[in-house]
Amino acid sequence: MTEEIRIGVFICHCGINIGGVVDVPTVVEYASTLPNVVHAERNLYTCSSEGLESIKAAIKEHNLNRVIVASCTPRTHEPLFRATCKEAGLNPYLFEFVNIRDQCSWVHMHEPESATEKAKDLVRMGVAKAARLEPLEELTSDVIPSAVVIGAGISGMTAALSLARNGFSVHLIEKEKEIGGMLRNLYRLYPTDELAEEFLEQRIKAVKEHKRIALHLSTSIKAVEGYVGKFKVILDENGVEKSIDAGVIIVATGAQEFEPEGLYEYGGERVITQLQLEEKLKKGDLDWAGIKNVVMIQCAGARGEVVGYCSKICCMNGIKNAKLIKEAHPDINVFIAHNELQAYGEEYELYYRDAKKAGVRFLRFPLERRPQVRRSDGKLIVDVFHERMQLDIPFEADLVVLSVPLVQNPDATQLSKMLKVPLGQDKFFFEAHIKLRPVDFATDGIFLCGTAHGPKDIGESIAQGYAAASRATIPLARGYVHSEPIISSVNEELCVGCGICESVCPYGAIEVVETEEGRRARVTGVKCKGCGTCGSSCIRRAIKMYHFTDEQLMAQERAAVVTEVIS
Amino acid sequence: MAEVKIVGFLCNWCCYAGADLAGVSRFQYPPNIRIIRVMCSGRVDPVIILDSFLYGADGVFVGGCHPGDCHYLRGNYYAEKKIEMARRLLREAGVDPKRLRLEWVSASEGERFAKIIKEFTDEIKALGPVTFEKEAMEAACLAAADYRLRILATKERELLEEGNKYGEVFTRHEMDRLLDDLVREEYEAKRILLKLKEPMSVKELASELNLKPNIVLRLILDLKRYELVDLHEIRDNTPTYIAREEHAQ
Ligand SMILES: Cc1cc2nc3c(=O)[nH]c(=O)nc-3n(C[C@H](O)[C@H](O)[C@H](O)COP(=O)(O)OP(=O)(O)OC[C@H]3O[C@@H](n4cnc5c(N)ncnc54)[C@H](O)[C@@H]3O)c2cc1C
Ligand code: SF4
Ligand code: SF4
Ligand code: FES
User: Fold this and answer.
1) Residue A1 confidence (pLDDT)
2) pLDDT digits (tens, 9 = 90+) for A305-339
3) Does B36 touch chain A (CB under 8 A)?
4) SS3 A305
5) Which of A435, A531, A547 is the mutation pick for testing B, counting most B CBs within 10 A?
6) How far apart are CA A201 and CA A296, in angstroms?
């Protein structure tokens, strides 16, 4: 036998915020006539300690098993009222919120009668839903106290060290034979001009020596299963398959330089990229004797030419290499052809001024008329359009250096699919929220740092490495994760295993599995975020979305338009 | 004049927050809308939308996050296709699809929310209270629950962008035609199903529903194949059919 439904309705005056427009006593009176409502009262401020006490008292006195508060917005006050219900021994998911302030009294201030009618309707809708609410239990699961960090560039090494120093064991996965990432190829680093090799050396040493960091070199990720707290990562380590359990995952796979095939006469020894230049500077195998003029071309392939975005590091990087050449060889002419230079912040501005002082010359071109490189009588000519004079000025060059953008690694697409985390428009990994959650993925337990997330310099990559480690420490240190029980669930009798639900779920929370009855969809509760998209897509309407069930929403929607009471 | 009734489904993270902000900033709008909170616009099932109309809503508003801003990444993309599907079904049921509106409103667009609701309310007021044949809307509800239309609504974007499994990409035009045909067919099939609470012949159905007999026959054979309809009896050499009880409600 089902339990009798006993609803209590608490209508808030919110001082004069609601009470000044909506006729609250009339709404209370109306509420008490609705089916299943056994108690209705009004409070000056339902959220005050007095108001909360009276909810608790009424739950006891009237033996309420559903509570409705009609007041402000669930977005700010739902946690409070849920907690109050819980204190009084009522399952917090048997609470329903009705918004009669933000979406009624405040927006219909000059129509008190209509506002009162609307408030009644909204309460009726709330009652219709409340009668159909079900108790739900919060989900908890344990967290394995170790991390997988993918990519051992500067950001991944930073994150790994930070986690290891906090006492967690870390598996650092690197597809190359050596750790260090992009920095292994670089010569000197802006803005300090220190040697990249020296900068890396001490950090590599710290990583290699740390007893809680296990390095996996020449290793690729083959598969990822599980969810926050209980990931299983399958590795291919030098041809040997290994499986690792971890509570969290950090993506630090970096980026690579764009290859400007077919642009600016690229190719050979005399039209090269900044990275190729740095490799030569590092090895010291550039023949300076034949070089009198160096022209660097900024934004090559970027900002609308091939990729749409600005690669952010190339201005400073161009300035750096121009300055280094000029300082070492004062008699060589070094030009930087640019559209606009970004040397943001005081330190970078000073660095730019140093380059100017050293004699680097800056040429500005409009983006619609980028420089052209041509060969004439065995010579390289760079035509740079001068905007004020409206003509191309030819510069003879013995070496052309293209400042090309950082682009995503080609295997990132595969990785994003394995991890079920998204790539953005520019193919870089996409964070959960640009301001509020900059190093989180929307999927719990997976974090992000470095140039895998988009072009950035070493300082920023390191800061993100620390940030990702600190975010990852939260579940690791706590040892368990809680998740809301507002999740979907599959009625296996109706499900035909078509997989439509699996295809729409952004979190891989619902998957088709083989059962004794055949293929059926199954939900992993902790992974599900409760969006409900699978439910409205399911071809058999076999999915129930807890707390927002079809039945509940239809009861609300019908109660919105049908004034005779539907019980 | 009777006031029009509007049901609104707003996603928790953007549009609902935008509606709250309209309140906090005291932007006024007409009181006809009754708002229901859902976690994501992707949750809003066409069946629920059409059911709102069936029960007497004169307009339905669905509000989600701007493309790219959905808290669950892609829910609003799916919502868009579901709403289009619901609009097609409304048209079949003889209801102006303008009565169903989808908008993207961010949490910071309180003023815009108020403006949109005012505009939409005015539009519905101008259209007046909704009228339709009850059976027509019931058929639309049933069609929205049908698996074929649900697959198509979910897979449409993929078929347009990535093509089918042979890599053949549909053009917008081809997709529209496919959708129009399929929606009409499903809708007519459901109308037949509803009529077949009583046994009827193909000819009778054709004249009742104003359809060509060969189309009715084809749809009936489909319904039979899916075990929704049975042969009832042969009356004067003419077969009559009846719906299986559980399917015609
Ligand atoms: C030419 C050039 C010059 C630069 N000069 C400067 C400078 O002077 N100053 C400055 O501040 N910044 C500079 N930068 C930027 C700097 O290189 C980056 O900020 C930095 O390398 C980012 O570090 P990261 O760890 O995020 O990525 P990376 O250094 O790219 O490291 C990523 C690591 O992940 C590994 N990896 C990738 N995919 C996988 C996978 N699927 N599985 C396992 N491992 C994987 C890679 O092999 C690599 O080791 C320069 C960049 C370029 C291109
Ligand atoms: S969409 Fe529905 S029927 Fe298809 S697999 Fe998922 S739950 Fe099962
Ligand atoms: S409700 Fe959303 S998150 Fe949960 S399984 Fe369905 S689609 Fe995935
Ligand atoms: S959360 Fe707003 S549309 Fe998905």
Assistant:
1) 47
2) 999 999 999 999 999 999 999 999 999 999 999 99
3) yes
4) coil
5) A531
6) 30
